[in-house]
Design brief:
Helix content is 38%, strand content 23%. By secondary structure, it is an alpha/beta fold. The structure holds adenosine-5'-diphosphate.
């Protein structure tokens, strides 16, 4: 699996007074098995960027390749792309609509035209992956806790067996326990299935703890694309973009705890 962006631009409402140049020449390569954090303040273009990855938004100019194929080629199979690149929107639980957990999670695979046995297998496997037990399978999604609802919604995407899982602020609005549960499950999934994960987040703590590579968006530009360890040494730049975490020490400690060598530049962090 590989996704390549080649000089991708996107303009909303072109030619009107609402015109907005939301992506300004993005160049990017994402490889199989990566765990990537996508950060940037509100309005920087994160959502616009991820919606290009599964073809929900079509670039105004530039090219995107999925496994070497131009996704805008007339022979390209967009349907397959949508099932291989799973996108979990913010507050995905708002899209739960079926009467039982089983029905909700099996909706996608059923629509792929798979037989009942395969649909069942995928549904049970996806629920297991997000840590939802069999006891909840016939429950109404509306009886579940906030964190459980969200995990059911994520299972609905996983049941499509995507190669890439993109999550837009998956912990927004959850309590600390719900947050940890979701992120730990995602980390486990990444480790066990080698699934590529792109995590859109505001939290530098989550970035420090989970991801390997960080993309930073600012005003439609991809301004940093670095391994995690390196990015924290560019702390001053992050601060200028109002992205510095108040819990800097926490971040540094989290890195040290994981045995990740923290570069000496991080003294800048302590001064900050
Ligand atoms: P982020 O996800 O980082 O908050 P977005 O990708 O949602 O950023 O937005 C990037 C820019 O595009 C912002 O200035 C936003 O106001 C604008 N934008 C987003 N969606 C639309 C839309 N549907 N129509 C017009 N402008 C939009």
């Amino acid at each position: 699996m590989q996704i390549i962006f080649d000089n991708v631009h996107y303009v909303y409402s072109s030619g009107t007074s609402f015109e907005k140049h939301a992506l300004k020449g993005i160049n990017l390569k994402i490889n199989k098995g990566e765990f990537i954090g996508l950060i940037g303040h509100t309005g920087s273009g994160k959502s616009t960027l991820i919606q290009h990855m599964n073809g929900l938004i079509k670039a105004t100019s530039g090219k995107i390749y999925f496994n070497g194929e131009d996704i805008y080629d007339k022979n390209f199979d967009m349907r397959t792309l949508r099932s291989k690149v799973g996108l979990v929107f913010q507050y995905p639980e708002h899209q739960l609509f079926e009467t039982t957990v089983y029905k909700d999670v099996s909706f996608g695979p059923k629509n792929l035209g798979l037989d009942k046995l395969e649909v069942d297998l995928r549904t049970y496997e996806a629920l297991k992956m997000v840590g939802i037990g069999d006891d909840l399978i016939d429950a109404s999604p509306f009886e579940l806790s906030g964190g459980q609802k969200r995990r059911v919604a994520i299972a609905g995407i996983l049941a499509m067996q995507p190669e890439v899982l993109i999550l837009d602020e998956p912990t927004a609005g959850l309590d600390p326990r719900g947050r940890d549960e979701i992120l730990d499950q995602i980390a486990k999934l990444h480790k066990e299935k080698n699934i590529t994960v792109i995590l859109v987040t505001h939290s530098m703590e989550d970035v420090a703890k989970y991801v390997d590579r960080i993309l930073v968006m600012n005003n439609g530009n991809l301004v940093m694309d670095e391994e995690k360890v390196k990015i924290f040494s560019r702390y001053k730049e992050l601060e200028k973009m109002h992205l510095a975490a108040p819990q800097v020490t926490y971040v540094v400690n989290a890195l040290k705890e994981k045995g990740i060598p923290v570069s000496t530049d991080v003294t800048t962090v302590d001064e900050a």
